[in-house]
Amino acid sequence: MSTTVGETGADYLAVHIGLGTSITGLVMASLLAVALLVQLRADRYVPWIYWLTVVLVSIVGTEITDALTDRLEVSLYASTAAFAIALAAIFAVWFKVERTLSIHSIVTTRRELFYWAAILFTFALGTAGGDLATEALGLGFNVGAVAFAGLIAAVTAAYALGANTVLTFWFAYILTRPLGASFGDLLSQSRDYGGLGLGTISTSLAFLTVIVALVVWLSFDGDAGRNLKVPLKD
């Protein structure tokens, strides 16, 4: 849901409100910096702080790709490849320094910084890859959403069959972004462009409402909080 809001929310601010890609990116990046600072200062998992940061990272990741594509006219093939290389480099450095990529080992600020850097580039890569599949390759929103959902299902099956837990987690995480983008475009774009015509406002508000409800539940449900078992950070 957060990845869908990243797509529709960015489109709403940049296009429908008329802020443009540059101003939207600057405003969202500033809000992300504040949210990330609060998140890094927290000594434990706090649902509303964490998920606010995730939503803002999703929007900023979308804006990075849109800026390259729309303003700088970088091809989706090139941006997808560049973000894939950048993400692979982050994982390589993270593993070299910490000897693990498991999210369950994020108990220090340095590991958390690696984590958020990886998340930002998974969203940027997912946006570029999703646009590449649905637009440049002509799959369309319907086929794109089904295709990425199928890939996540395949990763889940691989996990169930005993594939590496950390590897399958990150593959699935990367795929949630193009799935969310395709699904968001399918719901929000006009019928002339292959969407359902619900609009970015309605789609964003609907998904944000569900996200807020889930975060409230996580914040106040004692059993839900205990089941997360997130360790303190050093």
Structural commentary:
The protein is an all-alpha fold and 234 residues long. The protein has one domain. It is 79% helix and 0% strand. The protein is built from 9 helices and no strands. It has helices at residues 2-16, 20-41, 47-71, 76-98, 109-136, 140-160, 165-188, 200-220, 222-228. Helix 3 (47-71) packs across helix 5. The protein starts with a helix and ends in a 6-residue tail after the last helix.
Strand and helix layout:
Blueprint: H1 2-16, H2 20-41, H3 47-71, H4 76-98, H5 109-136, H6 140-160, H7 165-188, H8 200-220, H9 222-228
Offer a few descriptive terms:
234 residues; 9 helices; disordered C terminus; transmembrane; mainly alpha; 79% helix; single chain; DUF347
Strand content bin: under 5%
Global mean pLDDT? 87
Radius of gyration: 18 Å
**What is the ordering of alpha helices and beta strands?**
HHHHHHHHH
How many domains? The number is 1
Number of helices: 9
> Which structural class fits the helix and strand makeup?
mainly alpha
Broad shape: globular
Q: Unreliable stretches, pLDDT < 50, 5 or more residues?
A: 225-232
Distance between the termini: 30 Å
Measured as a percent range, the helix fraction is over 70%
Please give the number of β-strands: 0
